[in-house]
What we know:
Elements: H1 2-17, E1 26-31, E2 37-43, E3 46-49, E4 55-61, E5 64-72, H2 78-99, E6 105-113, E7 118-125, E8 131-138, E9 142-149, H3 156-163, E10 166-167
Antiparallel strand pairs: 1-2, 2-10, 3-4, 4-5, 5-9, 6-7, 7-8, 8-9
Helix pairs in contact: 1-2
Amino acid sequence: MRNTAILLTLALTVVSNYGCSVKASEWKSFSDKDNEFTITMPSPVTPVTKDSGLLQYEASDGDTNYTVSLNKRSTLDEKQEIETFAKTFADTYQSGMKKAGYPTERSLEKEVSGSNWKGKLYQFDKPDGSSTTIEVCVEPKHNIILYAFGGKANAPETKSFLDSFAVH
């Protein structure tokens, strides 16, 4: 139930933040405050604690907003965690977008992995031609969600953002 509340809060956060954009000066390697992950993001990166209590790191480049959200792992094994958390997250995100007046189609769903994490990559397309790409990464301590609001999975900036993610 807690995960569903967290996911719904994140989906609603997406809707409220979608229209904000500031041109970033440059992309830089970024590490979270506890040095648990590294990722390349536009600078500056702003840490934000949402109403759900989740810490997120946010940055913008033009019309695309990039966010990294950290969530605690459940006690499920890795495979179950990926299937349960990722599916619930994707379903909740899509439902939340529809309820908020932003209907989406899930145009991409595939398994992804890094050196010490596994997960799923999703792309959600809106009727206006815009997309949001989300990667759900499961590692030993966290579920880490990477968002590219306004970014297609195959866009160079989105690929750079997703491909640079590394868990320490």
